[in-house]
Amino acid sequence: MTRRRPPLRDIGPALVAGDAQRETALLLSIIEAVSAGPDVEPLAAAVARLITEATTTDVCFVHVLDDAERSLTLTGATPPFDAAVGQVQLPIGVGVTGWVASRRKPAVIVEHKEQDPRYLPIPALRGSDFVSMASVPMTSDAAGLVGVLNVHTLARREFSAADVRLLTVIGSLVAGAMHSARLHRQLVLRERAQERFTEQVIAAQEAERRRLAGDIHDGISQRLVSLAYHLDAAERALPSRPGDAAEQLRFARGLADLSMDEARAAIGGLRPPVLDDLGLPGGLSSLARSLPDLVVNLDVAEHRLPEQHELALYRIAQEALQNVVKHAAASRVRLRFTVACDGARLEIGDDGRGFDPNRPGGARAVGGYGMQSMSERAELVGGTLTVRSRPGSGTVVTVTLP
Q1: pLDDT at site 334
Q2: Is the pTM value of this prediction over 0.70?
Q3: Which residue of 37, 49, 75, 149 lies most exposed, with the fewest beta carbons within 10 A?
Q4: Distance between CA atoms of 393 and 330, rounded to whole angstroms?
Q5: Which of 233, 241, 326, 335 lies closest to 280, judged by CA?
Q6: Alpha carbon of 35 to those of 43, 45, 75, 148, 244: distances in Å?
Q7: Triad 387, 389, 394: Cα angle to 5°
Q8: What is the fold of 8-190?
Q9: What is the three-class DSSP state of 280?
């Protein structure tokens, strides 16, 4: 059965009996605090300030349960203790705060805190400066325990049942918002971790590709160059006569040339050298020049991006232009790269035959698995890829990076 939370009017004695204006002001302050934003620390700071005003206490500490639910971290405090936010941690069950968290019930110490077996002095919070304290759990039906609220007074104070009830109600009201803020923080941290992981994966792939490209260049390519040189020398040394030797030498020279072409293609496939030399703007210009049968309208911003972003956009442009050549039957291509304060944008459009993206298979039916590859490349660096096309009206591939 769901516990019934006491309505705000039931906590009147802790404020001023019958003072509807103060009750309304407190309710509005709570609403404002929980609506301020999704970040945990600002919410905890607002709650601490609100509680000291509502309870006429001297300081307030908001301890929030960590993600592992094994300890509490000081997340909000009234000045001058706001400087200690994030630096004080208490395991569940340790100190008065840990005791309240483990048992999920309030604790009040009127005086002589040091004699209470539950009390643990924390130098950063200067507990000896304060005489009385009250501590209540922050709980909600959906989230369970979220944290603990502590208030302290310089003068001796008998915290009444109404005082404790007020703290408990405020804790319950903000617990849901605090839980949502924690979930938001966890999501942001996971997204950042995913972004870092993606960057590391791409960097590792590129480092390996550079190594392989270097091995091919320094090993296979150099040996093939040497082979071609010796074959030329052997051919010149032979008497000028028709025969099997000269024919075999010419055949060997052809194989050497073919091997050189394949090695260069392999190096370019592993790591486009133009990106190292000229960056993405130069790489896109080079791709445009590689389309001799098409009129290319090139509009490229001279702006550098992080390495993994440049590589992704280059590969997407390369795949999109190959699709134009293979499938579009186009005469013109528009290649545009722009950078603004909100991100980068790459657009490849053609005047070809187009296709119906709503028919079975959609873009994949036209471009094979290249479309899927382009989309995955864009997603890996946090971007999005869209394809617009109609039969007879060409196709536009757009990539946006935040």
Answers
A1: 93
A2: no
A3: 37
A4: 10
A5: 335
A6: 9, 13, 17, 20, 89
A7: 120
A8: Beta-Lactamase (3.30.450)
A9: helix
273-401 — its CATH code? 3.30.565.10
Two structure tokens written together for 48: 């601490």
Measuring CA to CA, how many Å separate 273 from each of 206, 269, 286, 314, 344?
12, 9, 11, 12, 22
Query: How many angstroms separate the CA atoms of 164 and 168, rounded?
Result: 6
How confident is the model at residue 306, as a pLDDT?
Answer: 85
Our measurement of the distance from residue 70's CA atom to the centroid of its chain's CA atoms, rounded to an integer in Å, reads: 26
- pLDDT-based confidence at 60, cuts 50/70/90? very high
What is the pLDDT, as a whole number, of residue 30?
A: 67
Reduced to 3 states, what is the DSSP secondary structure of residue 389? strand
Q: Tell me the one-letter amino acid at 219.
A: G
Closest CA to 264 of 302, 306, 298, 222: 222
Cβ-contact 67, 182 below 8 angstroms? yes
Asked whether residue 38 carries a pLDDT value surpassing 50, the answer given is yes
Helix/strand/coil for 379: helix
| Average pLDDT for 55-61 | 92
What letter represents residue 310's amino acid?
E
Distance of alpha carbon 338 from alpha carbon 287, whole angstroms:
17
pLDDT at 47: 82
Using left for φ > 0, alpha for ψ between -120 and 50, and beta otherwise, residue 144 falls in left
Distance CA 259, CA 265 (A): 10
Q: Rounded to whole angstroms, what are the CA distances from 333 to 39, 163, 328?
A: 46, 74, 10
pLDDT value at 54 more than 60 = yes
